[in-house]
Design brief:
The protein is of the alpha+beta class. It has 2 domains: 8-176, Alkaline Phosphatase, subunit A (3-Layer(aba) Sandwich), CATH 3.40.720.10; 187-272, Arylsulfatase, C-terminal domain (2-Layer Sandwich). Helix content is 25%, strand content 13%. It has a 4-stranded antiparallel β-sheet, with helices on one face. The chain has a two-stranded antiparallel ribbon with strand order 1-4. The protein is globular, with a radius of gyration of 21 Å.
């Protein structure tokens, strides 16, 4: 119940470890995950702001989470640790409240089909924030980045960029400290059902692969011996122009004028990973 009920275990951890040795603190509370049962003051805050009724529980949970992040940063600052602490904020998926209530729990609103679990932007696009007082420069970067960039970034920040060879991803550190602009690069990803049928063999469960390159995004479904891919998000390859169609409603893949773009993105996606032979992939440890 850390975060939802108390922050004391974090304070205790910092008191035990903060000043004596380097520490790693992963704050991952069950917020703003359901149940959306934040204290009434958070609901009142968004009612007063005129939010739609179905959005209020989620917004209230986000506000509660935001306050706990503020508490965490205050703990670090009060102990004199802020100038020697790298803070990274990430989220694991998008979540958009729908207007329909959950059948198993009518007190809660279900998320939209296009958000959590889906290969669409509403389920994939999340922020990465980096803060280290005296080092990072406040800025907004529009270039595409991925969570696989986090480890190279941290290693770069602590002066150990080459300690692990052949890492996927790239360091974001020069951009974070304002000494260089991020180059435009595509980002890749895949979607799976919640449970793996066989660890270390992702080809058996892959449901969707996708690539985002500039304004275009290609999504490739994989049926796994079913009529449609898991989740029923797409039945065929889809190409979207996210500038003119941010809601991913207009599939351009079958339009003749976009054949070249589909082919070029597919080549990049297949070069990144083509399902089939998983023998060369890293296997889970014992």
């Amino acid at each position: 119940a850390i975060g939802r009920e108390t922050m004391q275990p974090i304070a205790d951890f910092l008191d035990r470890n903060g000043r004596e040795k380097p520490f790693f603190l992963w704050y991952a509370p069950y917020l703003p995950h359901q149940p959306h049962d934040s204290p009434p003051r958070y609901f009142d805050l968004h009612r007063q702001r005129g939010a739609a009724e179905h959005r209020i529980p989620y917004l209230a949970s986000i506000s509660q989470f935001d306050d706990t992040v503020g508490e965490l940063l205050a703990m670090i600052e009060q102990r004199g640790l802020a100038d020697n602490t790298l803070v990274i904020f990430v989220a694991d998926n998008g979540w958009t409240p729908g207007t329909e209530r959950m059948k198993k729990n009518p007190q809660e609103f279900a998320h939209t089909h296009e958000s959590k679990y889906s290969p669409f932007e509403d389920g994939l696009r999340t922020p990465i924030l980096i803060r280290w007082p005296g080092h990072t420069k406040a800025a907004t970067h529009e270039q595409l980045v991925s969570s696989v960039d986090l480890l190279p970034t941290v290693l770069d920040a602590i002066g150990k960029p080459d300690v692990i060879a052949n890492l996927p991803g790239r360091s974001l550190w020069d951009a974070a400290i304002g000494t260089a602009k991020l180059a435009d690069q595509p980002v890749f990803g895949e979607i799976y059902p919640g449970d793996a049928s066989s660890l270390g063999q992702p080809s058996r469960d892959i449901a969707y692969r996708w690539i985002r390159d500039g304004r275009h995004k290609l999504i490739v479904p994989h049926s796994q011996q079913k009529k449609t891919a898991w989740g029923d998000y797409l039945a065929e390859t889809a190409l979207y122009d996210l500038v003119s169609d941010p809601g991913e409603k207009i599939n351009l893949a079958l339009k003749p004028e976009h054949t070249g773009k589909v082919k070029s993105l597919m080549l990049k996606l297949d070069a990144w990973w083509t399902p089939g032979d998983d023998s060369k992939l890293l296997k889970p440890g014992p």
